[in-house]
């Protein structure tokens, strides 16, 4: 299966732009409850979360507004979009463009490009997992769960998909039974999973909500 890769571009960014976007991307991971990108390793999540625990901004640098984030994303995506004109169904370009907008929190735009990938490669579980996660960030837990489950129909034991499904079932639906079942399946089918300790921690936290009525949204993890 083909997973989503980080977008690369020959278009230079200023050091401030690159730094600010990196900080924002780390904060997205924390605010979203430790969700994992379709092809991201568990070790990368642990590293990112530690770095984001007390994020700092370079002196004189302000957190960019949504408009500024979109402008930076547009600038990074521009050379990729130019290449796409000659090859509109190039799944690598489409996925990379989707990643650019995902990282800039332009989730509806990211979803659009991920959907274009999936029209060509419906079994691309990395991209489908990323798209499902983007849906979660837009507040659409139902579609996020449906897409994560569809991803699992192609790759039933995909660790990152099971990890994210547990998060959304817990935080989006407060369905502790389904959330812990997803995480348990992750551990059972991926015995060498690098993020095992994190999964066990999440399971313990989720079980504290066992008395809460399913369907009640949880607060994002801090």
Description:
- With 222 residues, the chain is mainly alpha-helical.
- The protein is built from 10 helices and no strands.
- The protein has helices at residues 15-31, 42-52, 66-86, 91-103, 107-120, 125-137, 141-154, 159-172, 176-189, 196-207.
- The two termini are 33 Å apart.
- Helix proportion range: 55-70%
Instruction: Encode the helix/strand succession as letters.
Output: HHHHHHHHHH
Instruction: Report the mean per-residue pLDDT as an integer.
Output: 78
Helix- and strand-based class? mainly alpha
Q: Total number of β-strand segments?
A: 0
Please report the number of helical segments. Answer: 10
- What portion of residues belong to β-strands? under 5%
Low-confidence stretches: 1-33, 42-58
Largest sheet report: none
Shape: globular
Q: End-to-end distance, in Å? A: 33 Å
Question: Could you name the key traits of this structure?
Answer:
single chain, 222 residues, globular
Task: Kindly summarize this structure in a few lines.
This protein is mainly α.
Topology:
Blueprint lengths: L14 H17 L10 H11 L13 H21 L4 H13 L3 H14 L4 H13 L3 H14 L4 H14 L3 H14 L6 H12 L15
Helix pairs in contact: 1-2, 3-4, 4-5, 5-6, 6-7, 6-8, 7-8, 8-9, 9-10
């Amino acid at each position: 299966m083909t997973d989503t890769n980080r977008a690369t571009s020959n278009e230079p960014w200023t050091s401030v732009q690159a730094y600010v976007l990196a900080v924002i991307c780390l904060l997205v991971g924390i605010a979203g409850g430790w969700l994992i990108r379709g092809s991201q390793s568990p070790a990368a999540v642990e590293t990112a979360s530690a770095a984001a625990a007390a994020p700092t901004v370079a002196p004189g640098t302000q957190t960019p507004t949504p408009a500024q984030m979109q402008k930076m994303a547009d600038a990074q995506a521009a050379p990729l979009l130019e290449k796409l004109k000659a090859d509109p169904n190039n799944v690598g370009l489409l996925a990379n463009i989707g990643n650019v907008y995902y990282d800039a929190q332009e989730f509806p735009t990211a979803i659009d490009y991920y959907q274009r990938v999936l029209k060509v490669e419906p079994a691309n579980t990395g991209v489908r997992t990323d798209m499902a996660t983007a849906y979660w960030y837009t507040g659409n837990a139902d579609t996020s769960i449906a897409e994560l489950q569809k991803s699992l129909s192609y790759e039933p034991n995909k660790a990152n998909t099971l990890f994210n499904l547990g998060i959304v079932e817990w935080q989006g639906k407060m369905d502790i039974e389904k959330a812990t079942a997803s995480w348990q399946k992750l551990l059972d089918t991926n015995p060498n999973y690098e993020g095992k300790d994190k999964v066990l921690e999440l399971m313990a936290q989720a079980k504290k909500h066992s008395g809460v009525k399913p369907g009640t949204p949880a607060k994002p993890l801090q």
